[in-house]
Amino acid sequence: MTIASIDISLGSVETAENVSSKPSNTSENMSTPKISPPATALSVPKNAVAGEIAGRAIRTILPPLIGFALLIGIWAIVSMKNKGIPTPEVVWNAAVVLFSDPFYSNGPNDQGIGWNILSSLKRVAIGFGFAAAVGIPMGFLLGRFDFLNKALDPIISLLRPVSPLAWLPIGLLVFKRADPAATWTIFICSIWPMILNTAQGVQRVPQDYLNVARVLNLSEWKVITKILFPSVLPYMLTGIRLSIGTAWLVIVAAEMLTGGVGIGFWVWDEWNNLKVEHIIIAIFVIGIVGLLLEQGLLLIARRFSYDSNS
Amino acid sequence: MKSLVQIENVGMQFATKKGPFVALQGINLQINEGEVVSLIGHSGCGKSTLLNLIAGLTLPTDGSLICGGREIAGPGPERAVVFQNHSLLPWLSCFENVYLGVERVFGSKESKAILRSRTMAAVEMVHMAHAAEKLPGEISGGMKQRIGIARAFAMEPKILLMDEPFGALDALTRAALQDELIGVMQKTGATVVMVTHDVDEAVLLSDRVVMLTNGPAATIGEILEVNLAKPRNRLTLASDAEYTRCRAAIIEFLYQKQVKKAA
Ligand SMILES: Nc1ncnc2c1ncn2[C@@H]1O[C@H](COP(=O)(O)OP(=O)(O)OP(=O)(O)O)[C@@H](O)[C@H]1O
Ligand SMILES: [Mg+2]
Fold first, then answer.
1. What CATH number does residue A218 fall under?
2. Residue B178: which residues within 8 A CB-CB, separation 6 or more?
3. Chain A: nearest CA to B49, how far in angstroms?
4. Can you give the residue range of the structural domain that contains B8?
5. Cβ within 8 Å, pair A215-B104
6. Would the CB atoms of A217 and B92 count as touching at under 8 Å?
7. Within a domain: B237
8. A70 within domain boundaries
9. Minimal Cα–Cα distance from A211 to chain B, Å?
10. Which of A230, A231, A310 sits opposite B136 (nearest CB)?
11. Is the ipTM of this structure higher than 0.85?
12. Ligand 1: which residues within 6 Å by Cβ?
């Protein structure tokens, strides 16, 4: 509680007041989560003819709401028993302060949460981009040429289960700086799913399509652009989705070790400052960003998937 | 009539886990220009294998196949194939699927506009102009097969190879497509080799019906000439004596001389 109040006093007084009025509402809802939602659920079928739609909406929204309410309830109980863990209310207040100015910058070691998220995303994007540039062509080659596949498969099988963090020292050694070393771990962890899924996609191109290519006697370029690439694309996107999931997991850990600006480093820094509420905020933020990345790629994947029996 | 395809003493052996498997043996057949030949036989006797040999998708282990005076060494657009499962590329529209073949065959000597009008003509020929811009996933099975036929015809092949082109369709759609095929063949004078399971389809569409014995080591059992004037009409044929004779001959071959033991 003391930490939170210090934090608020650092911000403007007006926001602090606004903040304190909002969470009190939410915390009321939170404290009685099990009573209020069922009450609405019961009242809807009674008085509404168009209640069918509302009922369906409630049935889809209600369970996740209850889930979150339970989570927050348990958290509230734990934080009451354990003084080290901030209450939901304290965390909420801190979050509002934090997100009221996400893009401030007081030197390299004190930047807004927005900058931290963006620099982590940037590292992921770069490492990931290199991994795609190397991994996807590699996957095509492995899928097309059995010899290459047999030659590289044992190596990939050996290296794939290694935690990308084990590669961090190598990155530091080669690049001499922390920032590219963190990017390097992203590269390493992203490249395996891309190679393997692309290769699998190439191997699974339906024989029918290849027969079409042979009968039409298509040029190699047409085979690649009109047949191989479109049929491998869904596999490639799966590889990309898996990679970005792990990349986002790994970046947090890598940044804890390397420092600098980034959400992982920020978590570590706030731990050193003993601002546990910020760590909890970071957990939510990391989760939400990861979820958005995943959902975005799923959307893209859906756009490019074709019915296999069509 | 000029002979287009010569199949001489062709045999096909597959290497399997249990050792070599002789699928076809001693196949001899001449196919003339403009002729429609159907291959009929029990399931697994080697009809697809024979068709794939003519297509060049597989090469024979014995004997030789010649098309237009040249040994068949691989697949090519002068021997277009209509696949049993249509094999349209799902990411290309119907038009683009047909265009792919047209572009390959005529692209070097004709302008884009002519290529497009060729494609459109083929699509119209099978009465699919209204769905030209649709993806294969958005049209019915019969419509897909129509596009598959349009793709093959649009390449103006020397010979058209069809592996059970209507096998996956319901009876009504199949009849409609057979009639359509009769029209298209009449118009183009195409040489066609067609695999079929269907006795009526064989008689209705072909000049000769090649009947294969049961495998393994299947070979040509009988060849039946269908002496019916073209174009044929399924309604008037039903009571035609020649039609009935042909049907009876095929049925006798399949169900008396080559009884398939229940596997
Ligand atoms: N690639 C292959 N390897 C081994 N055996 C094969 C291969 N292709 C075909 N065969 C065998 O050759 C025989 C003939 O097969 P084919 O597919 O030509 O029969 P089919 O007459 O077309 O049958 P259906 O009417 O069921 O399509 C079958 O016994 C099959 O198992
Ligand atoms: Mg077959």
1. 1.10.3720.10
2. B166, B201, B204, B205, B234
3. 14
4. 1-73+190-263
5. no
6. no
7. yes
8. no
9. 7
10. A310
11. no
12. B 14, 16, 21, 23, 41, 43-49, 215
Give a yes or no: residue A229 inside a domain. Answer: yes
Do residues A304 and A236 lie in contact, with contact meaning Cβ atoms separated by under 8 Å? Answer: no
Is the separation of the CB atoms in A182 and A167 below 8 Å? no
Burial pattern B101-134, b for ≥16 Cβ within 10 A else e, equals bbbbbbeeeeeeeebeebbbebbebbebeebbee
Note whether residue B98 is domain-resident: no
CATH number assigned to the domain comprising residue B262: 3.40.50.300
Among the listed residues A64, A86, A65, the one whose alpha carbon sits nearest the alpha carbon of residue A76: A86
Strand order in the sheet with B62-67: B19-32, B3-16, B62-67, B70-71
pLDDT in tens, B7-39: 999 999 999 999 899 999 999 999 999 999 999
Give B227-230 contacts, CB < 8 A, sequence gap 24+.
B228/B203, B230/B182, B230/B186
Q: Could you give the CA distance from residue B222 to residue B40 in angstroms, rounded to a whole number?
A: 10
> How many domains does chain B divide into?
1
Q: Is residue A211 situated within a structural domain?
A: yes
- Does residue A50 lie in a domain region? no
Residue B62 in any domain: the answer is yes
Asked if B136 contacts B58 with a C-beta cutoff of 8 angstroms, the reply is no
Q: Which residues of chain B have pLDDT under 70?
A: 261-263
In this structure, the number of other CB atoms found within 10 A of the CB of residue B259 comes to 10
State which residues form the domain around A255.
6-26+94-304
What six digits make up the tokens of A261?
């600006």
Averages of pLDDT over runs of 10 residues in chain A (310 residues) are 36 36 40 42 55 84 91 90 86 86 76 86 92 93 90 92 90 89 92 93 90 88 89 90 89 86 88 87 92 90 66
Position B82 in a domain = no
In chain A, the number of structural domains is 1
Answer yes or no: do B55 and A222 touch at CB < 8 A.
no
What are the chain B neighbours of A307 within 8 Å (beta carbons)? 90, 137
Q: Do A214 and B57 touch (CB under 8 A)?
A: yes
For residue B43, give the ligand nearest its CA.
1
CA B43 – ligand 2 centroid, Å: 7
Nearest ligand to residue B47 Cα: 1
Q: What is the pTM of this model?
A: 0.73
Q: Which residues in chain B touch residue A212, judged by CB atoms under 8 angstroms apart?
A: 83, 87, 89
Strand, helix or coil for residue B149: helix
Q: Amino acid identity of A128?
A: F
Q: Which residues of A touch B74 (CB under 8 A)?
A: 214
